[in-house]
Write a structure and sequence with these properties.
mainly alpha, 6 helices, 2 strands, about 65% helix
Length: about 120
């Protein structure tokens, strides 16, 4: 009888493919969570600039939950910044009722600035 490899000793199995025995590898099961635009952008950033972290998270089965968490945090930060900037700059419901076009323009400006801040963080 042939001695078991370390891989077989820890419960791994091999599958014959032609003349070769290949290890049967699967990623750990991970709960699928929706990942929004912020999480997707961060995932691309990790894959391009921090490959080791990206692949460690992927092979540990933690990438999706990590990106979903990053997405939640970024979304919260985005809306908090919009609210703070609007209050600080006097962009209120009263302005919206009084001059809707001015309100829309100022809110678009605030959203663009908030998006830039979140993207940089």
């Amino acid at each position: 009888m042939m001695e078991q490899s370390l891989f077989e000793q820890i419960g791994g199995k091999y599958e014959r493919q032609g003349d070769y025995l290949l290890p049967c590898l699967t990623l750990p099961a991970e709960e699928e969570q929706p990942v929004g635009i912020w999480g997707q952008r961060h995932g691309r950033y990790l894959k391009e600039h921090h490959r080791i972290l990206y692949y460690n998270l992927l092979t540990d089965g933690k990438l999706n939950s990590y990106l979903a968490d990053v997405d939640r945090q970024a979304e919260e930060m985005f809306f908090r910044l919009i609210k703070q900037m609007a209050e600080r700059e006097g962009v209120t419901e009263a302005l919206k009722a009084q001059d809707q076009m001015a309100w829309v323009g100022r809110m678009n400006n605030i959203q663009n600035r908030a998006m830039e801040i979140v993207n940089n963080d």
